[in-house]
Amino acid sequence: MARTVLVTGGNRGIGLAIAQAFAAQGDRVAVTHRGSAVPDGLFGVKCDITDSAAVDAAFTEVEKELGPVEVVVANAGITDDTLLLRMSDEQFERVVDTNLTGAFRVAKRASSKMLRAKWGRIIFISSVVGLYGGPGQVNYAASKAGLVGMARSITRELGTRNITANVVAPGFIETEMTAVLPDARKAEIIKAVPAGRLASVDEVAAAVTFLAGDSAAYISGAVLPVDGGLGMGH
Ligand code: NDP
């Protein structure tokens, strides 16, 4: 059955691969962007997820065009790495406001319509770093770990209404976010990953479409790693 799907930050990177995977299976797919072009076949809405009013307006626009959002993927995220002692309050707060509070804004706005429909799928894109930690990533890891508590609390609140909330925790994926890593750091990461490579964006998208499907109805509050074995034991 075709669903209405909204992917934040679906204009590029992992979010775009997720959006395209849903579109390929016949869903109606909207993506948020902050002014960039959006590929054909996807419905683009402008939205900065640090702004609750913008999130509300984006959902309203999607609802008008494609119907109520049944599957929401909170994917938009940023890094702003530096060591703890050098990290400013502003650097910490900006990353948390985007990655964690942004996901909250999106999940909250989506859930009212999901409750009415008595069906919904909320998927948060976290990171292996959320539970594994990362040097220079106190802000990022804290924001990504917070998504786990959020998904599990939503699961406890909305579980009886056929609404699931899950976390996908990618390892290191080939995108613009990892393109900025120095080669030596990249080589170090690859050495630590049992699979011995980075992942493709499509490998993350496959986990997301699985969790959004009818066959995943009994999976909620879960953390699904797509990390080549890097974070085993989470
Ligand atoms: P990119 O840097 O390639 O893309 C980030 C996306 O987030 C863009 O679409 C960007 O929009 C959007 N975004 C950032 N800030 C905001 C904001 N305030 N409001 C709305 N949209 C915003 O990242 P990736 O595709 O690599 O990452 C996607 C998600 O996956 C992130 O949450 C990231 O933390 C996570 N992740 C990535 C990994 C990796 O190895 N790449 C590993 C683990 C997790 P715009 O185009 O307007 O800038």
Automatic annotation (TrEMBL):
- Domain spans labelled Ketoreductase: 3-176
Q: Which domain of life is it from?
A: Bacteria
Gene3D superfamilies from the xrefs? NAD(P)-binding Rossmann-like Domain
Q: Where are the transmembrane segments?
A: none
The family database entries (SUPFAM superfamilies) matched by this protein are listed as:
NAD(P)-binding Rossmann-fold domains
* Entry-linked SMART domains: PKS_KR (SM00822)
User: Which family does this protein fall into?
Assistant: Belongs to the short-chain dehydrogenases/reductases (SDR) family.
Protein name in the entry: Beta-ketoacyl-ACP reductase
**What organism is recorded for this protein?**
Actinoplanes couchii
Q: What is the lineage of its organism?
A: Bacteria, Bacillati, Actinomycetota, Actinomycetes, Micromonosporales
